[in-house]
Each structure stands twice: as C-alpha cells, then as structure tokens.
Amino acid sequence: MPRLPLGDWVDSGVNWLVGHFSWLFDAVKAVMEGMYDGIDAVLAAPAPLLMAGILAVVAWWLRGLLAGLLAFAGFALVDSLDLWDRAMSTLALVLVATVIALLISVPLGIWAARSRAVSAAVRPVLDLLQTMPSMVLLIPAMLFFGLGTAAGVVATLIFALAPGVRMTELGIRQVDAELVEAAEAFGTSPRDVLWRVQLPLALPTIMAGVNQVIMLGLSMVVIAGMVGTGGLGGAVNEAIGQLDIGYGFEAGVGIVVLAIYLDRVTGALGTRLSPLGRRAAAKVPTRAWSYRPRPAVAVAGVAALALVAGGLGVLGSSSGTSEASGSDIGKGKEIRIGYIPWDEGIASTYLWKELLEERGFKVTTTQYAAGPLYTGLATGQVDFQTDSWLPTTHAEYWAKYGERLEDLGKWYGPTSLELTVPSYVKDVNSLADLEEHASEFDGKIVGIEPSAGMMGLLKSKVLKEYGLDGTYEVVDGSTPAMLAELKRAYARKQPVVVTLWSPHWAYSDYGLKKLEDPKGAWGKGDGVHTLARKGFAADNPVVGRWLKDFSMTEEQLTGLEAQIQKAGKGREQDAVRTWLRRHPGLAGKWAPVAGGATESRAAG
Amino acid sequence: MQPRLEAEHLFKVFGRRPDEAVERVRKGADRDDLRGDGTTAAVIDASFRVEEGEIFVVMGLSGSGKSTLLRMLNGLLEPTAGRVLFDGRDLTALTDRELRKLRSERISMVFQHFALFPHRSVRDNAAYGLEVQGVPRAERERRADEALALCGLAGWEKAWPDELSGGMQQRVGLARALATDADLLLMDESFSALDPLIRRDMQDQLLELQKTLRKTIVFITHDLNEAMRLGDRIAVMRDGRIVQTGTAEDILLRPANDYVASFIQDVDRSRVLTAAAVMDTEPRGDEADCGCETAAPDTPFTELCALSARLTHPVAVLDAGRTLVGVVPRQRLVGVLGDEHGEATACDRDGGKVTGRA
Questions:
Q1: Are residues B59 and B130 part of one domain?
Q2: Do A186 and B104 touch (CB under 8 A)?
Q3: A276 and B118: CB-CB below 8 Å?
Q4: Nearest residue on chain B to A177, alpha-carbon basis
Q5: Is A548 domain-assigned?
Q6: Is residue B66 located within the same domain as residue B167?
Q7: Do the beta carbons of residue B304 and residue B282 sit within 8 Å?
Q8: Do A124 and A191 belong together in one domain?
Q9: Which residue, among B196, B242, B197, B201, has the nearest Cα to B218 in the 3D structure?
Q10: Which of B227, B253, B268 represents a domain boundary (last residue)?
Q11: B100, A179: Cβ pair inside 8 Å?
C-alpha cells in the first residue's frame, strides 16, 4: 500500500486556513472572549457567598427547598476550598460554550429532522467530532484562536455539539406523525407546525440534549485547561503536572459540584419550560422540602441578592488601594508570563512575577503544557517564559518556532539528562551496567511524554550507544506517571529505572542515583533559557535587559524551590517574597533601578 | 346542481416513477404486478361525487387505500393522476398557500386516534383551527366553547386531553373540526378506536348533529355496520379500487360482486332495511282498506316484524300522502332475514321429511 499523506494534507489545510482566514478566526475569537469576559465578570462580581445564594435561589425555584440548600452548601464548599474564582471562570466557560453549541446544534437538529439528506450528511460529521480524541482537535483550535478562552471554548463546543444536534433531531422525529398531520389538516404552515406542535412536544428531549451538552462541556474543561483557559480545568492540570493529589482532588470536587448543579438545574428547567412537564410537576403534592417559590418571588429574590451584590461590588472596588512606589518603572504595563509546571519554571516565573510587580508591572502567569506554551510565544499570546531547555531538550520546539522567538539567554546551567535508579539498586551505577541487569528491571525504562526531547535522544542515540536496543523497551507516558511509578517502586524498594533530569526535586525527596554516561551519549547539558516573543525586548527594553542579565546559581535555585515546596500550592509568590527577604540585594541585582531605591524595600 | 365534492379518476401510487405505474395500471396491470417493482398503487381510478349535506362513507379493509383516498380530498396527499373538485375548484391546481387556506377554513378532519395536542387544554385544542386562521383569542375561545358544548363537553374546557376518556377525547376532536365551521368534514376511522357502546353513542351523536348542521361528511370506516348506520351513500373499496357505490340497501340487496356479498353476511340486516326495501311493490290495492295498522316506507325492519306479528295479513305500506305503495307479507320478512329470495314451495306430504334450507 502506498502511504497516504493524509496528515500532510491536514497540516497544509490548517496552515492555509490560518494564513487566509485569520480575520475570521479573530472575529470569532473576539465574540467568544467578549461573551466569556461578560459572563465571568457578572459571575465573579458578587461576594462568593452572595453568588452562592443567588445560585441557590435559582435551584430552589426550579427544584425545591432541599435542592436550594444543597446548592448553597456545595458552592460554599467550593468557596471554602479557595476555588471560587476558578469555579466561576469554569462556569462562564461552560455557559459560553453551551450557548454557542445550542445556537448551532438546535437549528441544525431541526434541519436534520426535516431533511433526510441533511440528516445523513450530518451524522458522520457528528461521529467524527464526538469520537476524534479531543487533544487532536485542541492543537488546530489553538493555532486558529491562540491560547486561552477561545480555543478552550471551541474545543469544548466541538465536543459538546453532537448531542445537541442528535437530541433535537430525535425529539422532533419522535413527535407523533398523526399530530403533525392534524396540524397540517387544519392548514398550519410548515413553520407553525414546527413552532406550535413539534418544538413544544420535542422540548423534553431537546432539554435532555442541552443537559448533555453542558455535561460534556464540563468534562471537556479539564482538557481545555491545557490551553490556558484557567479555571478548575487549569487547577486540575496544575495538580497533575505537580503530582499534587490533594489539590487535584479539591479541584475535582469543584468540578463535580458544578456538574451536579448544572445537571439538576437544566433537568428541572426542561420540565419548567415544557407545558407537559409543568402539568406533571403540578400534580405532585408539595412538601416542605419540595416547596418552590413562585417565579415572581424567585425573580425578586435573585434581583434583591444581585442588587446587594452590585452594591457591595461598587463599594469593594472603590476601596482598592494602589501600591504605587518610587520604583514604579512598569506603570501598570501588562506582562504575560507562561510556564511549564516544572519546579525551576515555577520558581523562576514567580520570582519574576514578584520582581516585576515590585517594579510596577501588572503580571499575569499562566501554566501551559510545553507545546501550547511555545505556540503561544510564537503567536505573541505570551510575552516570555523562563524554562526553555536548549539546545537539546526543546530542540524540536526551537526548530519549529525559533524564527518567531527571541532568546534572552541562559540563566541557569548546565542541566543534565540522565537515566536514574533508586540508590538501593546495587551494582548498577552506569548506563553500561544496564544490559546485564535487564531482567531485574523487567526490560523497561519508564519514560515521560514521547514528545519530550530527551525521549527522542534516549531512543535514537543513548540506547544504541550502550547496546540496550534489544534488551530494553522505553515506556512512553507522562512526567506525572513516571514520577508516580518512581514513588510506587521506591516505597516498595523495587528496582526501577526512569528518565530524569537535573535539577529536579525528586533528587532531594528520594535517595536516587544518576547513571553515569561514560560515552557521553546524552551530550552536554542544556542551559535553561529565557525565551520571549519576537519584539518583546524592543517593546520593553528595561525588562529585556534584566532578563538578559539574569542568572541563578544552583544553590539559589534549589533554595528557592525548596522554599516554594514548603509554602505549598497557591503560596508560590509568598514563598518568593520570603526568600527574597532572606537574600537581600538579589532583587536589586536582578532588576536594578537607577539610584538603587529598591534595595531597602526588598530588604524590608 | 354542482356536487360539493367530486373525485375524478383519482390515482395514488407510492414509489419510483409513479406516472409510469399509473399508465401500466390503466392498461390493465393490477396491484400485485406493481408490487414486484417496489411501487404501491394505493388508490386506483377512484371516482365519486358527494352532494352537499350528505354523509358519504368509504368502507374497506385495511390496506384498501381508503385513508390515502381521504387524504387526497383535502390535499394532504397530491394525487398521482386525476382531479379533486371542491365546489368546482380543482384542488390539484392550487398553490400550497391556497390549499392551506382552504384547509383551515373550509375542510376539517377528525382522526382515528384523536390526534389531540397533548400540550394544549381542551379549549385550546378545539380552538386550534381558528387559531391557525388568525381569529382573535376572545372570539376563538367563544366559538371553541360553543363547539365543545355542541359535542356535549360543556364544563370540560379547562381540562387536558389526557384527563379524558377515549370517547370524550374524540368529542374534542369532533369539536375541533366543527369549531372552524368548515363545509366539509373528513372523518378517518374516527370511531374505530372506541369501545362498541361508546362508538354507538358517537354515531348517534353524529347523526343528531348532522340533522341540524347539514355538513358534507366523508367518513372512512372498515366496519360495514357503521357504514350502513351512518352513510347516505357508501363506497366499498378493495385493493385500491372502488368496487361499488350505492345506498346501504343497494349494497345489502344488490351486492356488485362476491367480495361485497361476502362482506354483507356479517351485517345485521334488521338494522339497515326499511319497509321500502323489502315490500312487494305490486299490491292488489285493497290491503290498506281494513282499519289495521300500516307502515311507512322508512319504517325500520324490526318495527315491521313487530307490526306483522300483530296482524293476520300482510302489512300495508303507505307513503306520506296515504297512498298504498306496497305490501310486506310475513314470508317476505323471514326470507329477507335469511337472505332467501325464492318463492316458497309446497311440501310433498308423501315424500316424508321437511328439510330446512339454510
């Protein structure tokens, strides 16, 4: 069989689209981000408990008192887990995706219900959208819409579209044909048949579709979190990236609360909206826990709470103080830093966040996977990132995006890549020792993401050099999976060999042994570089100079990492501040201000 | 006078190349020949006229094409060939919009399974046709309530269809059809889904309403008893063709072929027949001269039997002008009931036994 270059076609198709329709994508993006920002602003404006109250009243109105109380308890839990803002941004994302999905899927479903040809044409497309692994769609979405909300919405949307179309079509098709005929027999026009008979009767099924759309949308937010949508999805991704089980669970609970709330509320909305559902609900005897306020009361309740919220919001925003100081160089200018959740990345990113904020910049930090981060830099979505391992580990990214990036130089190095075994594994000290101990390790080397530079190097060069090609198999996976495997084996004192690199916190947590590389197969170590988008240094000459001059010693870096590790999740910047206070002078050295006015401030 | 409704050589063929199929049927192919090609001739060459104020019943078994025929009469289905004339207007020549207007104002329909809208109250169901016409709410509710009252449902306006029994639901269906004040009522097996007793009630009510409303009604049924009870004239369909059209008595006494004859075996003749159908139309002339009770031409058969039992001689039948139009000898009553049209033969006493003839 000849090799069909399908992938190349798709590649060039995507490139062509990006080249010729960027105006369209920009417009779509603007609309989506506008919707998202609007909804998010409304949801996040009131105090969390007040918003929880509003959401609870909605649940009370739709489902009864018990549902309202549970909703309040659920959202209070989310707030107490310190996930409120993230939950609201996820809710906003899901709502935007749902609204757009419905605007597309309901008319499409109606059309498919009325025309067999359309139905037949739409079905395979839906199958494709629904079953194509979402990660595969995420990358083109990112190329079209850049990092952030829009790409997340699109990825969510595509995944959630199918049930909306299917359920709408099904709902309309299953309306009794005799009823449609009756409507026609009395001279109803096709449009009125749809509005007066088919849609009202199909409504319960359509609402079930809406429900599905929302649920699938929620299940997609975690994946969307990989392209920097933030929210609970972002939290889950951060937790996965850092193997933080507790935090991952908390974020997961947040998603579950949202899911259950949205599921129950949209389910109840279906019965409220459909005349048949309303009648059925009216027949059920009312009890205290199912007592529901009249719509007018519910609207009044929501309005009252919203007014209170609005009032507090106004007061709250006016009481905010500005932290102007003598060293205000940034004057509120915005700088976006992206990072990969590796320890040196987190440490240096929060270090620069703190330094730049001290100097009056407004800094946002967003976590990404490596691929999206480079894409974001190349397209100018991210200003700079501090964790680029060059020339080896990130060679592929550099080859692809290097022309559109600016290298601000190495700030740490050399790093090293290695295969590592726990120190309790005797007799294996060098790569050369591995061959004869293959059976001990089951012939497996636990690897990380197959896309990582070191994995390519391992498979194509290191194994060959030491003749391990036939005896070992490299297990592709992910960094968290590799670390989990290491942790598991370490706890049981089983032999294991993993791919690892320095600096890495695992070396301080476990007793590990780097395998020597007498033949130099891994090559010389990388340097950790700071990469900026093209033109960043020209736009921000001062910051550009600071970053070019930046460097850290191993002692400084590991010390900072340890401080951050100790402070725990969510307190990275506090840890940086503490660390800077203990090391007076560094802030002034890394981000000097004319006259050294900040020296005292950093020390204090 | 122009008939209210006229069907001229209607054909309806489902499937591929229907026009070709019509040609083949015209040349003598039958339904089975077509079925091999995947086409179905549902209605073949149907022609009839329905006069104003008449109940015209189309009777046939399932698959005979009667429902398809009915749906061509209001344009829900377009005939493959032939024309439908309603008050002289050719329905097949109308645009979709004109056809919808005609359906909303002049023709209404009652369905086998009621086809009430479950998401509308009884009143809103009855008012549906008026709503389509764009009649203002207050007026359409008034007219809907009138129609419901006419059908015996006063007081049920605010109920919902699923709260009503089958018979009551069909009354709503009837009220919905009557509310628009349409001239032509199409009733598609409207009473078939009801219990026998309720079905009789509904039939009686329809006849009662018809006395005052004088609608033109085309009624589809598979039940010959129902057809004979309701129909001023009856068309019997078989395999897409109308095999006989006539009054109940025509069909009962003069079935066009064996198929119709086999049908009428199950019919309760005593319910259908009247004095006019069974009487001997060549009376001697003096039968009414005694002071005994007499019958009229439309005296039902059962009453005639009762009369005959009270008299010692044949019953005289007098028309509205008290003129003698016929006599009914008792033997004739028994003969009609037994479907025996021959003369009685004298028995042969020497031959022994008398054998009954079934």
A1: yes
A2: yes
A3: yes
A4: B115
A5: yes
A6: yes
A7: no
A8: yes
A9: B242
A10: B268
A11: no
CA distance to partner chain A, nearest, from residue B200 (Å): 24
Q: Is residue A285 part of a domain?
A: no
Q: Omega before A391 cis (within 30°)?
A: yes
- How crowded is residue A10: how many other Cβ atoms within 10 Å of its Cβ? 12
In a domain, A287, yes or no: no
Q: Supply the DSSP string of B113-171, one letter for each residue.
A: T----TTS-HHHHHTHHHHHHT--HHHHHHHHHHHHHHTT-TT-TTS-GGGS-HHHHHH
Q: Which residues of A touch B119 (CB under 8 A)?
A: 200-201, 274-276
Q: Which two tokens stand for residue A380?
A: 């100018």
Interface touch B104/A276, C-beta < 8 Å: no
B188 three-state secondary structure: strand
User: What residue type is B301 in one-letter code?
Assistant: F
CB atoms within 10 A of CB A231: 29
Given an 8 Å threshold on Cβ–Cβ distance, is A184 in contact with B108? no
Do residues A528 and A434 make contact, with C-beta atoms less than 8 angstroms apart? Answer: no
Distance in angstroms between the alpha carbons of the first and the last residue of chain A: 72
Is A467 domain-assigned? yes
Residue A597's φ and ψ, nearest 5 degrees, are -65, -20
> For A5-27, what is the HEC assignment?
CHHHHHHHHHHHHHHHCHHHHHH
Q: Beta partners for B234? A: B57, B246
Nearest C-alpha of chain B: how many angstroms from A177?
A: 9
Which of A214, A112, A119 is closest to A160 using CA atoms? A214
Helix axis angle for A149-173 and A134-145, nearest 10°, is 120
Q: Is there a domain that residue B157 lies in?
A: yes
Q: Where are the beta strands (DSSP E) in A403-484?
A: 405-412, 416-422, 444-446, 473-475
Show pLDDT as tens, one digit a residue, over chain B (358 residues): 678 889 988 899 888 888 888 888 888 777 777 777 778 888 888 999 999 889 999 998 888 888 999 999 988 898 998 899 988 888 888 888 888 988 888 999 999 898 999 888 899 999 999 998 889 999 999 999 999 998 888 888 888 888 888 888 999 999 999 998 889 999 998 888 888 888 888 899 899 889 888 889 999 999 888 888 888 899 999 888 899 999 888 888 888 888 888 888 777 777 778 887 778 877 777 777 777 888 888 888 888 888 888 888 888 888 888 888 888 888 888 887 777 767 777 776 655 555 555 4
- Cβ–Cβ under 8 Å, residues B188 and B110: yes
| Distance of alpha carbon A191 from alpha carbon A173, whole angstroms | 15
Task: Tell me the C-alpha distance between A511 and A193, whole Å.
Answer: 74
Q: Tell which of A178, A209, A228 closes a domain.
A: A228
Angle, helix B166-179 to helix B137-150, in steps of 10 degrees: 130
Is A268 in contact with A66 (CB distance < 8 Å)? Answer: no
The ipTM value here is 0.80
What is the residue type of A5?
Answer: P
Whether residue A433 is found in the same domain as residue A462? yes
Residue A275: which of A197, A209, A212 has the closest Cα?
Answer: A197
Contact list in A for residue B164 (CB cut-off 8 A) is: none
